[in-house]
Design brief:
This protein is α/β, with parallel strands linked by helices. It folds into two domains: 311 residues, HypD, alpha/beta domain 2 (Rossmann fold, 3-Layer(aba) Sandwich); 42 residues, no CATH class. 40% of the residues lie in helices and 19% in strands. The protein has 17 helices and eleven strands. A six-stranded mixed beta sheet has the order 4-3-5-6-11-10, with helices on both faces.
Length: 363
């Protein structure tokens, strides 16, 4: 328990783990959706606290990991244009494309700038009217409202040199895709609390009812995660399947109406390709017709085609919870954070990176 001993509420966490052990009379498999939850589980050794029959699987909730390879290649192609300044969050720079990454092309002279908000990219656009500014807009529902606001403000300010390379994804369709698979073995889910602060927890109710799976909304502290696991186990043991908000200090049933409003004003749902997984219907967001002039793919005539993944990388299997990162023969040898084969090894929310950083076994 040395990892958990670093945690300020270690004793409380152990008491919750004991309640889980008391409640579980049979094996159960629970998937945490978010990569932030995965890193907390690995950092504090939460799996080690649980009885042998409770297995945690790691889901596709890492926005960097699921950004399709074709989008990475498109961002690299745009960055190489002399008339373009590509603005991105820093965690995208080392994600491998099919041949290179944004950090490498930046070192080669491309104007790639790290920003901390999409609104920072608007400032870059205003300060560089003779250049095309492209913001790499990726993420789940948490990043969609600020990305939408930036596009909304670009329209209001008539910043015709601003556009967004959009790769926004949605959690509920991904959960349904996992549950619909023939090899599905997930029996309950820990939903990401920060997503529910935007969209609300109520949107998971139809999934819980249709597939008869408990869903617990949690935060990212060990106590949050353990509370969510306990809630899932209690429901599973009782034969129940509903949504429980274990993160009420931040998330509400209806989410954030203001954030949802700007999101729905600028974006609309569409099919989306997930890196390593494939296309999932209605799992992405695209710009509505009235904002299409800010779509970088349309502005620069990008084809947005599908690019095949490296054959050796099993990131798609890891992202869908079908295997653990250590099942990969390249893990920790041919695939490391310094030389990643796939995005889950380089992303700060990637499952492979979590296993590498907090591993319990020698490589």
């Amino acid at each position: 328990m040395k990892y958990l001993d670093e945690y300020r509420d270690c004793e409380t966490a152990k008491k919750i783990a004991a309640k889980i052990a008391e409640s579980a009379t049979q094996p159960w498999t629970i998937m945490e959706i978010c990569g932030g939850q995965t890193h907390a589980i690995m950092r504090y050794g939460i799996q080690d606290l649980l009885p042998d029959g409770i297995e945690l699987l790691h889901g596709p909730g890492c926005p960097v990991c699921v950004t399709p390879l074709g989008k990475i290649d498109a961002a690299i192609a745009l960055a190489r244009r002399p008339d373009v300044i590509l603005c991105s969050f820093g965690d995208m720079l080392r994600v491998p494309g099919s041949a290179t990454d944004l950090l490498t092309v930046r070192a080669q002279g491309a104007d790639v700038r790290i920003v901390y908000s999409p609104l920072d990219a608007l400032t870059v656009a205003a300060e560089n009217p003779d250049r095309q500014i492209v913001f790499f807009a990726i993420g789940f529902e948490t990043t969609a409202p600020p990305n939408a606001m930036a596009i909304f403000q670009a329209a209001r300010q008539n910043l015709t040199n601003y556009s967004a390379l959009v790769s926004q994804v949605l959690v509920p369709p991904a959960i349904e895709a996992i549950l619909s698979h023939d090899e599905a073995r997930v029996q309950a889910f820990l939903a990401a609390g920060h997503v529910c602060t935007i969209t609300g927890s109520a949107e998971y109710l139809p999934i819980a009812a249709r597939y008869h799976v408990p869903i617990a909304v949690t935060g990212f502290e060990p106590l949050d995660i353990l509370d969510g696991i306990l809630e899932c186990v209690r429901q599973l043991e009782a034969g129940e399947a509903t949504v429980r908000n274990c993160y009420a200090r931040s998330a509400r049933d209806d989410g954030n109406p203001t954030a949802r409003s700007i999101l729905e004003t600028v974006f609309e749902p569409a099919a989306q390709t997930w890196r390593g997984i494939g296309e999932i219907p209605q799992s992405g967001l695209v710009l509505r017709a009235e904002y299409a002039q800010f779509d970088a793919e349309q502005r620069f005539g990008l084809n947005g085609g599908t690019v095949p993944e490296p054959a050796e990388c099993i990131a798609g299997e890891v992202l869908q919870g079908r295997c653990k990162p250590t099942a990969c023969t390249a893990f920790g040898t041919r695939c490391t954070p310094d030389s990643p084969l796939g995005a889950p090894m380089v992303s700060d929310e990637g499952a492979c990176a979590a296993y590498y950083r907090f591993r319990r076994v020698a490589l």
